[in-house]
């Protein structure tokens, strides 16, 4: 007899690791499967740091979700006695009418979040490393900061296993076969069965549910680390330098303070289409030069290239998440909180997925994340 689990979680990155933990904590007999050994560098959940923020320019609908995520990240820090988050404050920069600035203010005002609206002179005075143009303004929130993705995933998996979860790593899933009262999952190593399955496979999601023809695009994303040619500056440290996103006339980029390994900077949504099974992980001199040009233009530092890393964004057409039951199989849940802005929410989404499995109210409006918003042949 094949073992019958309560739930199988396919993909143990940001979302899957959190779902595995919350399900195990809720007393479910749960198995997690991943083709690699997370935390790893092959998907979308590596790179040493991720931004977490509340004044969410993308949409006010995300604010309650990220507030719950904050609570759960702090809870996991306490349970693991491990640092998962550093508060740095967060700065959204751009023209007053830019989508980034207007959207951040809208979310803050919709949900009563405290923020400061800073003009260019104040920005230069308070954050002298930044070199804003005269028409640049900033939305500053104190609660924003940095999550450490590898530590978050590792911690979630350890907590999950402490509650009895089983992990099968280095196993590639080849097929799902939903039945009326269970789901069979075929891997290269064998077959598992469970009453329910969560598919949280990131860039490989479309391969596991091809019948849905989900309109997902995978985007190659490069992140860079730089030293400062003038030596260490106090103004680049986390207690002086916030996380930031900056929208200019022709680009959007984001970055972090120096957390001990240089300044991390990257473009947001300017990568090339990619195949997750054949991702180009070589970073060219032209790519380094492009981000160096941005740094020299907008910062008072001399960037010295240190290293780069390649990951993936898995995007929906509207850049919102997918959190929904399979349209034809209520025992399969699709979880793709991605589009390049999902990591910060993972702790809350893991809890939501557990509520969905158990048939409990999630406490959140998931309508924006439904599959039927796409014009797919279902």
UniProtKB/TrEMBL annotation:
Domain of life per record: Bacteria
Name the cofactor(s) required for activity, per the record: FAD
Q: Write one Gene Ontology MF term.
A: sarcosine oxidase activity
Indicate whether Oxidoreductase appears among the record's keywords.
yes
Q: Does the keyword Metal-binding apply?
A: no
Give the E.C. number(s): 1.5.3.2
In what residue span(s) does the FAD dependent oxidoreductase domain sit? 6-356
The protein's matches in Pfam families, at most eight in alphabetical order, are given as:
DAO
Q: Which UniProt keywords apply?
A: FAD, Flavoprotein, Oxidoreductase
NCBIfam families (UniProt xref): PRK11259.1
Name of the protein described by the UniProt record? N-methyl-L-tryptophan oxidase
Organism this protein belongs to: Dawidia soli
């Amino acid at each position: 007899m094949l073992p019958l689990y309560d739930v199988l979680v396919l993909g143990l990155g940001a979302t899957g690791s959190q779902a595995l933990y919350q399900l195990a904590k809720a007393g479910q007999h749960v198995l997690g499967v991943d083709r690699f050994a997370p935390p790893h560098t092959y998907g979308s959940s590596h790179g040493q740091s991720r931004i977490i923020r509340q004044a969410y320019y993308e949409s006010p609908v995300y604010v309650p979700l990220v507030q719950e995520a904050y609570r759960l990240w702090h809870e996991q820090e306490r349970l693991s006695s491990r640092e998962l988050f550093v508060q740095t404050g967060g700065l959204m920069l751009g023209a007053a009418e830019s989508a980034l600035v207007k959207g951040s203010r809208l979310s803050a005002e919709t949900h009563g979040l405290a923020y400061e609206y800073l003009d260019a002179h104040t920005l230069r005075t308070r954050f002298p490393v930044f070199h804003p143009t005269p028409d640049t303004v900033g939305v500053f929130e104190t609660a924003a900061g940095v999550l450490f993705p590898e530590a978050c995933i590792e911690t979630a998996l350890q907590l999950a296993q402490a509650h009895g979860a089983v992990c099968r790593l280095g196993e590639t899933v080849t097929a799902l076969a939903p039945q009326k009262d269970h789901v069979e999952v075929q891997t290269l190593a064998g077959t598992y069965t469970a009453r329910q399955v969560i598919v949280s496979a990131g860039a490989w999601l479309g391969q596991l549910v091809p019948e849905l023809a989900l309109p997902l695009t995978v985007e190659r994303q490069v992140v860079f680390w730089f030293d400062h040619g003038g030596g260490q500056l106090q103004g680049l440290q986390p207690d002086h330098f916030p996380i930031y996103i900056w929208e200019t006339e022709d680009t959007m980029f984001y970055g972090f303070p120096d957390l001990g390994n240089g300044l991390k900077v990257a473009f947001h949504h300017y990568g090339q289409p990619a195949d997750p099974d054949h991702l180009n992980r070589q970073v060219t001199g032209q790519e380094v030069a492009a981000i160096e040009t941005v740094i020299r233009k907008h910062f008072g530092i001399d960037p010295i290239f240190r290293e780069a890393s390649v990951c993936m964004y898995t995007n929906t057409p509207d850049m919102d998440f997918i959190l929904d039951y399979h349209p034809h199989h209520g025992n399969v849940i699709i979880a793709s909180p991605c589009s390049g802005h999902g990591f910060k929410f993972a702790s809350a989404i893991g809890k939501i997925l557990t509520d969905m499995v158990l048939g409990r109210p999630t406490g959140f409006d998931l309508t924006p994340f439904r599959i039927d918003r796409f014009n797919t042949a279902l």
